[in-house]
Amino acid sequence: MSQTLNKLFLICEQMISSCDMDYNDLKDKFIDTTFFDDYNNTRIVNSFLFNFSKLQDKIGAKLLKQLLYELKEIDSITLPMIDVLNRLEKLDIVNKDDWEKLREVRNLLAYEYPFEIEERVENIGLVLESYRVLKDIYTKVKDASKRV
Predict the structure, then answer these.
(1) Chain CA centroid to CA 75, Å
(2) Does the pLDDT of residue 139 top 80, yes or no?
(3) Please, what sign has the CA dihedral across residues 39, 110, 83, 10?
(4) CA 128, CA 2: separation in Å to the nearest integer?
């Protein structure tokens, strides 16, 4: 495994560690419209959403392409994401539909407004579920890297 790929895994592991702490704080809480009355809850949610988004970016923009490059499945890491996803799906590493759902959730977050509490509560549930999917993808990518 190259230094580049190894470094990407280390960065992702740090992000996952941060996400896991916040995820564990959130997963068993009853999240309703009064949840955000406590600033500590808002802080945890904001931290989780930030780290989730950064992790998804790192995996999508860097890790997936670097993995394919090192597996000698692509010649350049400048390949469009749709081509990356198609190749990963053929290799049974990433399900393209799962990745697209993750992107949709991330887009929901980007256009979320803090004063729309009901929408925010609903989106938190989606992100918590999406995080499990993202971690599954990461695990498959890490397993596939053993072929390098």
Answers:
(1) 25
(2) yes
(3) negative
(4) 32
pLDDT digits (tens, 9 = 90+) for 34-93: 999 999 999 999 999 999 999 999 999 999 999 999 999 999 899 999 999 999 999 999
Burial of 85 (0-12, 13-18, 19+ CB in 10 A): buried
The counts of H helices and E strands in the chain are 6, 0
* Phi and psi based region of residue 72 (left: phi greater than 0; alpha: psi -120 to 50; beta: remaining): left
Buried b (16+ CB within 10 A) or exposed e, 8-29: bbebbeebbebbeebbebbeee
Q: Residues 6 or more apart from 73 whose CB is under 8 A from it?
A: 87, 91
Q: Is the pLDDT of residue 112 over 80?
A: no
Please write the tens of the pLDDT for every residue from 5-51: 999 999 999 999 999 999 999 998 999 989 999 999 999 999 999 99
